[in-house]
Amino acid sequence: MEQKTPKKRGRKALILTQDQINQVEYLAGLNMGVMDICRSLGISWSAFDKNRKKKQEINDALERGKAKGLTRATSKLMEKIEDGEFQAIQFYLKSADKERWAEKQEHTHTLNLSEIISSANARIIEHQPDALPTSAREEIDIKQLNKATKS
């Protein structure tokens, strides 16, 4: 009698084809994230991640794609700068030399805490519920009603 080899359980491991790896590089060049690349390829993130761990070629494709996209965008920006386009020049300077060219916004706030605390103390001492916003007064009234109905 012939002995059969037992079948392996689970799913077959998905192996990315060379066309899919090329697609990964192209999509990474469009600045797509890994999840978006997985969706475009029609595979799960876990399958992609397993392939990426097994094949350095996939990581290399991601890195090459990102580098190509950055190179393409930078060259277009430089073309605009050479054409004298003010916004491109401004963007480049603000990005490349933030210390000198970035627009700095300063916000100053002045609080007199002693005045705020003394005002709050005066309201508490004088029992001035009118100083509270309407919603806070209604909340207090509801709490007092609940206490009265419980007792």
Summarize the structure.
With 151 residues, the protein is mostly helical. The chain has helices at residues 18-29, 34-41, 45-54, 56-82, 86-96, 98-101, 113-126, 134-150. It contains 8 helices and no strands.
What can you see in these coordinates?
The longest helix has 27 residues. The protein is mainly alpha-helical and 151 residues long. It is flat, with a radius of gyration of 32 Å. It has eight helices and no strands. The mean pLDDT is 84. The protein starts with 17 loop residues before the first helix and ends with a helix.
Notable characteristics:
mainly alpha, 151 residues, single chain
- Rounded radius of gyration (Å): 32 Å
Beta-strand content: under 5%
Order of helices and strands: HHHHHHHH
Any idea what the shape is?
flat
Low-confidence stretches: none
Q: What is the tally of helical segments?
A: 8
Write the layout of secondary structure elements.
Layout: H1 18-29, H2 34-41, H3 45-54, H4 56-82, H5 86-96, H6 98-101, H7 113-126, H8 134-150
Helix pairs in contact: 1-4, 3-4, 4-5
